[in-house]
Amino acid sequence: MSYDKVTQAEKLIIGTKQAVKTIRLNKAHEVFIAQDAEDRVTSPVIEEAARQGVPLTYVDSREELGKACGIQVAASVVVITD
């Protein structure tokens, strides 16, 4: 499952603003988007990833994505980086 990649990643960026910044700096390897997140939160990241050609992976749950990151709260957007 996609959550495994997040769990095993060495460096993660969590959150919309930091994700967009990381993608623009060409440091993103893959972007994970929770399908239950609000469009207004995820749209800027999806658009920037498409512009830069960064692969997108959709996962089912914000709660599960947060757990995979090792944080106590839900996560809508996560980027695996260098």
UniProtKB/TrEMBL annotation:
InterPro entries tied to this protein: Ribosomal_eL30-like_sf, Ribosomal_eL8/eL30/eS12/Gad45
Membrane-spanning parts: none
Domain annotation Ribosomal protein eL8/eL30/eS12/Gadd45: ranges: 5-82
Domain of life per record: Bacteria
Pfam families in alphabetical order: Ribosomal_L7Ae
UniProt protein name: Ribosomal L7Ae/L30e/S12e/Gadd45 family protein
